[in-house]
# Entry
Amino acid sequence: MGIFDSINISASALTAEKTRIDIINKNMANANTTRSTGGMPYRRQMVVYEENKGRAFSDYLGKQNDKINGKGVMIREIVEDETPFKLKYEPGHPDADENGYVSMPNVEIVKEMVDMIDAQRAYEANITAMNSTKSMLMKALEIGRR
# Structure
């Protein structure tokens, strides 16, 4: 592992968590959107993470030296939640069916808030890890001055 690898790993996690927070915000903003691009209600989106593995040569060297090879995290994809839409009885709504029911997005605000808190805590933990690494590097430089 190089001297800045741990900072790069934390930075990749910060980027991933920021994207997750953006998607959660998008879900909450569209919690009442009954007609999106395809004419259907908005579908909740979720972020899927994947380990950002090192290149093949660094993997080989890592196995030989018995070191950690991870390069952090990356977003593999953003997927739609296939949970069925909620039905709400509202006969006067323009998107109501013949029985007066409107298909509402499958977004639950409480669940989104819990996910938001989780993402914020993960973001804060990665900032703490980055600051700890920075502090250790500064201490190492101070030792080298003496």
Remarks:
- The chain has a mean pLDDT of 87.
- The radius of gyration is 22 Å.
- The first strand starts at residue 45 and ends at 51.
